[in-house]
Amino acid sequence: MSECSWPGNSEMMKKYHDNEWCIPSHDDTYIFEMLTLEGAQSGLSWSIVLSKREDYRKAFKNFDIEYCSKLSDEALEKIREDYNVVKNLLKLKSVRNNAIEIIKIQSEFGSFSNYLWKYVDFKPLINNWESEASMPAQDSISEQISKDLKKRNFKFVGPVTMYSFMQAIGMVDDHKRTCPFHSLNR
After folding, report:
1. What is the pLDDT of residues 52-80, one digit of tens each?
2. Where in this chain does the entry annotate a coiled-coil region (predicted)?
3. Catalytic residue at 46?
4. Domains along the chain?
């Protein structure tokens, strides 16, 4: 069996690959964390964002959705200055914005998880890629989620970001077929 090659020699990336990537999560706080980090990644490498993860957790109180929904512009500016996060102010403001919108979705669907997982009938999509090169950057489901989230005023939720997000929360298993972490090999 050969593992996915994208983590390379990075222990941090390997740990994420082995313990989180493509593993189903229904925890709204974790899902919000992944939405935030995937949005921060836009235009950057995942390793850069992952290396800043602990500072994100400190800055956003472990991604407490209620707390993040009430952050002021001044608080967001202070986070930008004091923490090792992606410094793009629009990306930081999207944390507050998306938290506000998640609270609305929780009210409507019972949880953010319920809203998202309905797109895959509450079961992860298990792909069987022979190589990582076969894996798409987006699909029709990520396009649907992106379109609906944009209508709901979410930010940094394009279809490519949403596909990575779906992988991050386990809505899709894109480990290559020979990877021991593929759902069918565990």
Report:
1. 999 999 999 999 999 999 999 999 999 99
2. none
3. yes
4. 11-185 (1.10.340.30)
